[in-house]
Amino acid sequence: MTEELMLAGCLKNNAAAQEALYNRFSPRMLGVCYRFAKNREDAEDMLQEGFIKVFTQMHQYRNEGALEGWIRRIIVHTCINNLKKNKKFSDSLDIIHAHSVHVNEEMIPSIMQAKQVVECIRMLPLGYRTVLNLYAIEGFPHKEIAGMLDIEESTSRSQYTRAKAMLEEILIRKKIIQKPKERTRLLASGTQG
Amino acid sequence: MERKFYTDNFEQLLKDKADEFRMYPSKRVWHSIYNDLHPGRKWPSVAVSLALMIVLLVVGYWNNKSADTSFAGLSSQKNTALLNNRPATSGIFQFPFYGAVPGDQTTVQQPGLTSNNTGVFPSSSLALLTNPGSRNSLLQPGLKNNGTPAGNPVAFENIAIANIGLNIPDRSIVPGTVPSENRLNTADAAVKINSLKDDAVATAFIKATMNSKNKETGYTINTDAVKLYNKTELVNGNNNAATITAEKEGENTTTAALSDENEKSVVDNKKETEKPVSTVAKNTISTEDKAWIEDYAFHNKSKRKKWQDRTSLELYITPGVGYRQLSNDPKYNMPSSTPSFTTGAGIDANKAVNQKPGLGLEAGFVLNYAIAKNLRIKAGVQANYTSYRINADETNHPVLTTLMLIDPNSGYPYMHSASSTLVNGGGAQPVKIHNKTYQVSIPLGFALKLSGNNKLEWYAGATIQPTFVMGGKAYLISADRRNYVADASLLRKWNLNTAFETYINYKFDGFTLQAGPQFRYQLLSTYYKKYTVNENLYNIGIKLGILKNF
């Protein structure tokens, strides 16, 4: 089913079209939710709420951008609204000096590289993770993030800086990434040996 | 400058990998969305619940009504003979009555996995294979690798291992070196797929590539640590388990020839491995992959949180109405030839007693544990109060009456005489007597989630309840069905109840409220076996509860 047909069907509240649209975008959108959520069940709840909004607000889609981008934006806002209901979330945004995360070798499933990266992101404290998701992955500017999370723009920046440093550390310790310099050094020593 | 470049690349890496990541939601999500968008379809579920409640209420009503009707007939046959022959003093008499004599995952197999090039696979690499959360299992009996380094990729790719830390010392495996289809067919080591069974397994393949530098990001993707998950379509068609058998060993090349039905998909898979890293990771994930990932995600939460997320405390109270079902033990029906009791003989005790429902109450707590997404098991403690009313008459003087009991030693029935001022109709003034019990029980059962969304959930469940009867009042119908005798000593101390319930959960602020109808039935008679009338209580109530997760 083409995107146009799906859109037309969804506007008519056609269940088949809605299901087709859901099947097409739900895997990626659940991946988005999963990065924000505490666990898979919460992510599915967010996805459900988000898609209901998508279908009920479909008439607001103007065909001015990619449909996926429009859906993703709704899903992200749904995730944020969902997180904001949780008091722990607002507390976590106030974390200035988060402790380093203990990386247990068994904590991260190693099935796919993408999944590994996402799981590493999910190891971050909630506030860090949310800002990092919004800025680095979803591409929101700090100003908009500040508005979404009801925090100062400077807080968003500092949260992101710390989140990124912590994530880098996790990824390097998990040997998922290596810094370019280290790589060079490693290769050089390997050549000499 | 270098730092900025580094930073930008890092963010790009994150974005790329995060965008590649996909998860497949469970069917529940779509069903909930569908129900929300098309509310008309919800009505069958609600209608079934209402129908169930109505049926239970109608059954209760009819049961009660039939007892009333029968009792009217009985009242017209009053016989006062016994009253006239009563002894001067109330007492208990026993005389033998010689009436009727009571008759009476798919397994994981990986033996002897050796490789001249790679050494033995580290145990960590088998973690995935033995992961209890994985529905997919990999079978690799006797697979050996003696071959030349350049010929190994296929063997590696067909060894279904995907785990971090897989150490492959031999670096001569060239990424992207993929044997042709013809080469597969002429391979020395034949790998056969057989012993296929339903509900098992796909085979996961590793792309064992060398460390390769991600030129786009400036980061090195350490593929020794990260084996790309490249799932084969090997058994997609039949959704079966595969037993891989190495038929030949000891040759220089360890390539694999697969059975015809799977050949194409394997070759396709090899072609895919030639793609760049990012392209491979974007492969469409099969249904089995989806199931695997779902299963993996469900079973691989951190241990500390696992029981907390799955366990909840439930407090509840169930007001209701209590009924009873009386039945004669057919072996001990009063024979019509017994002169003194002919008028009451053979009358169904259930019809003889004019009962009205009484209030019942249950209250307690249970611990719920989610053993699956839609299934909870539960255990707890519950206090019960059961009652029903009997419409009787009171006489101005005690009368002699009898209960027919069974001698537990001989098995013969005997008449246990007693005095009573309560008669089953025809007395001086009507009175209401209450049969009631106080119980403590241990409900053990389950609850199955039938449907729901993030706010509302619909459950159905059942429990079995070993019950201790702490006390109560028992008015027993006499052998001739004319009198009631108060004798609580005949109340059975240990009993067994069962309950069926369906309820709606409503979540708010970390709590869950629940409400729904419940039907509770007492499986054993209220009285000891020696009393020849069996009584089974049942209650219909509305369960109101509150749940809190740990």
Task: Describe the secondary-structure layout.
The complex is a heterodimer of chains A (193) and B (550).
Chain A (H helix, E strand, L loop, with lengths): L2 H9 L3 H22 L3 H17 L10 H18 L2 H6 L20 H10 L3 H12 L4 H8 L3 H21 L6 H13 L1
Chain B lengths: L1 H19 L6 H11 L5 H33 L5 H4 L9 E3 L17 E2 L28 E2 L7 H6 L22 H5 L3 E6 L9 E4 L4 E2 L6 E2 L6 E4 L11 E4 L9 E2 L2 H14 L3 H5 L5 H13 L3 H8 E18 L20 H4 L2 E18 L2 E32 L6 E11 L5 E13 L2 E9 L3 E18 L1 E3 L5 E4 L7 E15 L2 E12 L10 E17 L1
Parallel strand pairs in B: 2-3, 4-10
Antiparallel strand pairs in B: 1-14, 4-9, 5-8, 6-7, 11-12, 11-22, 12-13, 13-14, 13-15, 13-16, 14-19, 15-17, 16-17, 17-20, 18-19, 20-21, 21-22
Strand elements of chain A, count: 0
Structural class of chain B: alpha+beta
Beginning-to-end CA distance, first to last residue of chain B: 50 Å
Basic shape of chain B: elongated
Helix-residue proportion of chain A: over 70%
First-to-last CA distance of chain A:
58 Å
Helical residue percent of chain B?
10-25%
Topology pattern of chain A, helix = H, strand = E: HHHHHHHHHH
**Oligomer, anyone?**
heterodimer
Assess the beta-strand content of chain A as a share of residues: under 5%
Question: Number of DSSP strands of chain B?
Answer: 22
Contiguous low-pLDDT stretches of chain A (5 residues minimum) are 96-112, 182-193
Mean pLDDT metric of chain B: 65
Per the principal axes of the C-alpha atoms, what is the gross shape of chain A? globular
Rg over C-alpha atoms of chain B, rounded to the nearest angstrom: 37 Å
